Amino acid sequence: MFYVISKRTSRLILLALVLLVLGLCYLYVFPEAQPQQQDLVDGQLMEIEETVSVTAPLQRTETTTVPEELVEVAPLRTDFFNEYRWERERSRSRQSAYLEEILMDPTVQPARRAETEARLWHLTQLSHKETELENLIKAKGHRDVVVVLTADSANVVVDGQVDAAQAAQIGEVVNRLAGVTMERITIIDGVEQ
């Protein structure tokens, strides 16, 4: 069974997915990236004070007013699919960099090193599968597509409308290549550039 979702709903779902992925990345991949406000000194917790120094003086800038008839405002056009891919790759790059830092640390225990290597390999495989799926779905005649894989689900965002037969083709490709069960595949259509 496949779900075909309207254009407006698809944008809301996609925004929620992006926020969810970024939140999970922050919580699970970067737990040590949160600033520490305490330090252990001689067996006691001590507060850390942060000081900020300003080296450049503030400079005053002047503004001028331009008559409205001289200003031409072009509509802002965003390329949703390329921006989404870029943001996904940027997030994965941050995750990979964090994991590589752990691998470079000589004090890391062997068990944690093995776990980190497995997570890094998993990220690489997810990225490869997403790209391969996007290219295969485009080859089936869709203008543009973004695929987001998680451990047990897949979200596919397709440019334009998708009918039941096309949804079945997309679901079959994702199921075969990524190993995601049909019930865990969500196809969002109606997103147009």
Listing every helix as H and every strand as E from the N terminus to the C terminus, the arrangement reads EHEEHHEEHE
**What is the CATH homologous superfamily assignment of the domain at 6-27 and 79-191?**
Stage III sporulation protein AH-like
Indicate the CATH class of the domain at 6-27 and 79-191: Mainly Alpha
Helix fraction? 40-55%
Query: How much is the average pLDDT?
Result: 75
Query: Can you tell me the CATH topology of the domain at 6-27 and 79-191?
Result: Helix Hairpins
Strand content: 5-15%
Helix-strand makeup class: alpha/beta
- The low-pLDDT segments are 33-43, 45-59, 70-77
**Distance between the first and last residues' Cα:** 27 Å
Question: What would you say about this model in short?
Answer:
It is built from four helices and six strands; from the N terminus they run βαββααββαβ.
Could you walk me through the main structural features you see in this protein, from its secondary elements to its overall organization?
With 193 residues, the protein is an alpha/beta fold. The protein has a domain at 6-27 and 79-191: Stage III sporulation protein AH-like (Helix Hairpins, Orthogonal Bundle). The protein is 48% helix and 15% strand. The chain contains four helices and six strands, in the order βαββααββαβ. The protein has helices spanning 7-29, 80-104, 110-139, 164-178, and strands at 4-5, 38-41, 44-47, 145-149, 154-159, 185-191. A four-stranded mixed sheet has the order 1-6-5-4, sandwiched between helices. It is elongated and about 55 Å long.
